[in-house]
Automatic annotation (TrEMBL):
InterPro entries reported for this sequence: THO_Thoc5 (IPR019163)
The keyword Iron-sulfur is annotated on this UniProt entry: no
Cited Pfam families: FmiP_Thoc5
Protein name, UniProt field: THO complex subunit
Amino acid sequence: PQEVVEVKKRRHRKSVQQIDPMEEKKKRLLEVHPLSVEITASVNSGPSITVTFQYYTKLKIVTVTSKVSIPSSITANTAREILSGENILGELREGDFGTDSPNPTTPYHLKKIGVNSYQSLVPQIGYAYTWAQGVCGMDFLSKQVRFDSSSVV
């Protein structure tokens, strides 16, 4: 007599990873377009600056990151501070430090993912200078537009 052995087939289950839904939303909101523009300007045997423009598809803003390379012949610490990328690109337009999003819908989107201000994202995604939006063909209404009721007829 032959012994019949039943073998149960088991399915492999994918391991379930605990994914924080807020982190997933943040990741989606901070999706960057796959193409970016990088410009490098340099002076003969002097410093050079590399500026990178990236477009965030959900936030609908352009951000700028920069890196300054200073040759070893420039030794002064103050020169290094003055030539840092943020110092060179900040306030090309008066009051434009790039730490606030020019898109008026950004605070709404950030609040949905638990981020209080755009400024907290700057180290991660870059500066959203208003001049950079203009260079890239984007235009947002100024946050300082005031409605004057006396001009209405």
